[in-house]
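Supplementary Methods, section 5.1.

A reviewer requested that the exact input to the structure prediction be made available. We therefore reproduce it here, unchanged from the version used in the analyses.
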Amino acid sequence: MRSNYKIAVAVTAGVAIGALAVQGLHAQTKPPVYFVAEIDVTNPDAYAKEYAPKAQAIIKAAGGRFLAIGGSAATTGTVTAFDGDPPKRVVVQVWDSMEKIRAWRANPEYVELRKVGEKYAKFRSFAVDGLQE
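The structure derived from this sequence is encoded token-by-token as follows.
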């Protein structure tokens, strides 16, 4: 009977320590960073063929995840304006950190590809820190 009591105490202590560790790790996680781009596409066909797929592949390889893509040259998603005119295209991404966004933007492959994109579109983009949950 005593050995069962010791096992029960050990299991309870292990669960408590594990729960505290998980809570501590959760408290240390940083909120995500959201990257938003408004894109005025002037040549949707060329943009969709020469720029968008390659840019999306580079973004995914760098750790970015797409939350929304809508507007011209997009296969899904519509843009609905509530105030002012809607942009022709909108992209929303989520990143683990601002450093990862900066690394993606400085990637020589992306820098060269962006020159192609700028032939077919004008870009306005910004990033905002997410809220701690």
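The chain has four helices and four strands. These observations are discussed further in the main text.
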